[in-house]
Automatic annotation (TrEMBL):
Residue ranges constituting the SGNH hydrolase-type esterase domain according to the UniProt record: 48-225
Superkingdom in the source lineage: Bacteria
UniProt-recorded name of the protein: Lysophospholipase L1-like esterase
Organism of provenance: Kitasatospora kifunensis
InterPro entries referenced in this protein's UniProt entry, alphabetically: Ester_Hydrolysis_Enzymes, SGNH_hydro, SGNH_hydro_sf
Signal peptide: 1-28
Keywords: Signal
Pfam family membership, one: Lipase_GDSL_2
Length: 245
C-alpha cells in the first residue's frame, strides 16, 4: 500500500480531536467531494458488506456512505475516494462493495478479486446480520469463527490494509442476544489481530431504535446517519494509530 499521509499524522490527530468535536454537524443531504480538497491525501476506501452497505432502506440509496463522506469533509487530514465494483445512490462517487443477501462466507468467496481490482487503503466492514437472522447456522460463535477466517484472508491478500469493522445492532426480537454475543467476539478478534500487528479497528455500532429502521433489518436515513457517526471514530482511531500512512 502506498504511503498516503505525511509522517506525524498520529500527533496531528491527537492535537486536533478537540477542534474536530466542535465542528458543526454535516447536513444529511449534503454530498461533497472530500477528494477535491487541495493538498489533502486521498484514501481509497471500500465499503464492504451486505444490503446494509448497499443502502437498502435509504430513500437516496446512499446508505451511510454520503453521511460518512460529509463527516470526513469536516476535517482536513485526508479525503476519501470510495472504491468497489458496485454503484448506487444519488451521491457522487457512489462506489462500494455491498451485496444484497450476502453472508460472511459469501463475502469471503469474493473478497480476493474485489481487493485486487480496487486496491483499497481502508475497508469499512459491516457483515453478519444475515448469518444471525436467516442463515442455516445462527450460532453467533460460529459466525464469529467465519469472521476470523474472512479476516485472515483479507490480511493475507493485503497485509498493510486497514479494516474498520462496525458492530452489528438490531431491534428485531430474537436476534439481540445473538448480535451481542457476535459483537463481543468481534471486539475480541480485533484485539487479537492488533496484537499480531494487523490493522483492525472495531467500533461499536449505533444505539438504534425502532424508529431508525425502514424494515426489520435495514436502517432508514436516520439510522444510516447513526452508522456513519459510528464509523467515523474508527477512521479517526486508525489515523491516530498511524495506520493510514
Amino acid at each position: 500500500m502506498k504511503r498516503l499521509l505525511p509522517t506525524g499524522l498520529a500527533a496531528l490527530f491527537a492535537l486536533s480531536n478537540a477542534i474536530l468535536s466542535l465542528a458543526p454537524p454535516a447536513t444529511a443531504g449534503t454530498v461533497s467531494h472530500a477528494t477535491a480538497r487541495t493538498g489533502s491525501p486521498v484514501l481509497r476506501i471500500m465499503p464492504l458488506g451486505d444490503s446494509i452497505t448497499v443502502g437498502q432502506g435509504s430513500i437516496t440509496g446512499n446508505g451511510y456512505r454520503a453521511d460518512l463522506r460529509d463527516l470526513v469533509t469536516d476535517q482536513t487530514h485526508y479525503g476519501v475516494q470510495f472504491v468497489g465494483d458496485q454503484s448506487n445512490g444519488t451521491m457522487t462517487n457512489p462506489q462500494h462493495e455491498g451485496h444484497g443477501y450476502y453472508m460472511i462466507n459469501d463475502v469471503r468467496h469474493g473478497v480476493d478479486g474485489w481487493l485486487a481490482a480496487a486496491q483499497p487503503d481502508v475497508v469499512l466492514l459491516y457483515i453478519g446480520t444475515n448469518d444471525l437472522d436467516w442463515g442455516t447456522d445462527l450460532d453467533p460463535d460460529h459466525a464469529a469463527d467465519r469472521l476470523k477466517v474472512l479476516m485472515d484472508q483479507i490480511f493475507t491478500d493485503q497485509p498493510e490494509l486497514t479494516v474498520v469493522m462496525e458492530g452489528l445492532n438490531t431491534t428485531t426480537g430474537g436476534m439481540q442476544n445473538r448480535v451481542a454475543q457476535y459483537n463481543n467476539r468481534a471486539a475480541e478478534l480485533a484485539q487479537a489481530e492488533q496484537q499480531q500487528g494487523r490493522r483492525l479497528v472495531f467500533t461499536n455500532g449505533p444505539s438504534w431504535e425502532t424508529k431508525d429502521f425502514a424494515d426489520r433489518l435495514h436502517p432508514n436515513d436516520t439510522g444510516y446517519q447513526k452508522m456513519a457517526d459510528a464509523f467515523f471514530p474508527g477512521l479517526q482511531q486508525a489515523a491516530a494509530n498511524g495506520w493510514l500512512g
